[in-house]
Amino acid sequence: MLTIAGFDPSGGAGVLVDVRTIVAFGCHPVAAMTSLTFQNSGGVFGATHESAKSLRAQIVPVVEERKVAAVKIGMLPTSELILEVACLIREGRLPAPVIDPVLKSSSGYELIESDALEILTRELLPLARVITPNIPESETLTALTVSDEESMRAVADRLRAMGAHAVLIKGGHRKQSGVGGPGSEKAQATDILDDAGDVHVFRGEWIEALPVRGTGCMLSSAIAAGLAKGEDLPQAVAAAKEFVAAEIRKSKLKTQS
Ligand code: PLP
C-alpha cells in the first residue's frame, strides 16, 4: 500500500504515522514524500516541498516493480504536486486514492498554498475513491458552515456535487453531549459517509483525551489498508474508526501514567 504524504521528523503525523498504521493492518508500506516538514509537538516551523519531477521519480519505479493495491494521499502542498498526482492516476499508474485533504496543522500552520486549494478541488477530488475531510476542512472546501448532523450531510452532498464520488465527514471537531436519550451521559462524535448517495452514519463514543496528533493520517491510511484487503468502503471506514479510537485511548492511558 502506498502513502503519498509529508514527512514529519517528530513522527506525530504524515508518512511515519501512515507507515505505522499500514503495518498494523498487515499491509506492506511503500511511501513517497511530498514535503520535508520541520516540526515537533509544539508546532510546524517550516517545510521544503518536493517538485513534481522528484515526486514522479519516487513513485514510478515503485509502482512498476510491485502492484499497489491502494493509495492514501495526505499533505500535497502545491499545485504542481497536485497536478502530478492527478496525472499519475489518469495514466493508470495509481488506483483511485483515499484523499485526506490536509489544509492546516492543529497548531494553525498552512500545509497547502492558498492557490493550490482550487486545483485540489477541481483536479484531484473527482479522481478519489473517497475524501476524508474533518469539519473545518469540509467548510473551507465548500464555503458552507457545519453546525449539526443535517449540515454535515449537506456539506457531503455539496462535495459530491463538486465531483467527489464518496465523502467521509469526520465529526471529531463537534462533540455532542447527552445525545443518547434520557439517562445517557455519554458524549458522542458522529462521522458521516456518503458513498455515491448511499449514506452511513457512524456514531462513536466521544473519548475525552488531550489532542492526539496524526489521527487524520491514521484514519485515511487505515481506510486505504482496508480497501487494499478487499473490504468495501463502509467496512473499511468502520475498522479504521475502531483503530483510531484505540490509538486515542492508548494515548490517554500514556498521559495518565
Ligand atoms: N504534518 C504533516 C506532514 C501532516 O501530514 C499533517 C496532517 O496530516 C500535519 C503535520 C498536521 O498534523 P496535526 O493535525 O497533528 O498537527
Please name the defining characteristics of this protein:
257 residues, binds pyridoxal-5'-phosphate, alpha/beta, globular, UDP-N-acetylmuramoyl-L-alanine:D-glutamate ligase, 8 helices, 6-stranded mixed sheet
Report a brief summary of the structure.
The strands form two sheets. A six-stranded mixed sheet has the order 3-2-1-4-5-6. Strands 7-8-9 form a three-stranded antiparallel sheet, sandwiched between helices.
Question: What's the SSE blueprint?
Answer:
Elements: E1 2-7, H1 15-24, E2 30-40, E3 43-49, H2 52-65, E4 71-73, H3 79-90, E5 98-99, H4 116-124, E6 130-131, H5 135-142, H6 149-161, E7 166-169, E8 188-195, E9 198-205, H7 215-228, H8 233-256
Parallel strand pairs: 1-2, 1-4, 4-5, 5-6
Antiparallel strand pairs: 2-3, 7-8, 8-9
Helix pairs in contact: 1-7, 2-3, 3-4, 5-6, 7-8
The protein binds pyridoxal-5'-phosphate.
Pyridoxal-5'-phosphate is lined by residues 5-6, 8, 12-14, 37, 74-75, 102, 105-107, 111, 213-214, 216-217.
Describe the overall structure.
By secondary structure, this protein is an alpha/beta fold. The protein has a domain at 2-128: UDP-N-acetylmuramoyl-L-alanine:D-glutamate ligase (3-Layer(aba) Sandwich). The chain is built from eight helices and nine strands. The strands form two sheets. It has a six-stranded mixed beta sheet with strand order 3-2-1-4-5-6. Strands 7-8-9 form a three-stranded antiparallel beta sheet, sandwiched between helices. β4, α3 and β5 (98-99) form a beta-alpha-beta unit. The longest helix has 24 residues, at 233-256. The two termini are 34 Å apart. The model has no long low-confidence stretch (mean pLDDT 93). The structure holds pyridoxal-5'-phosphate.
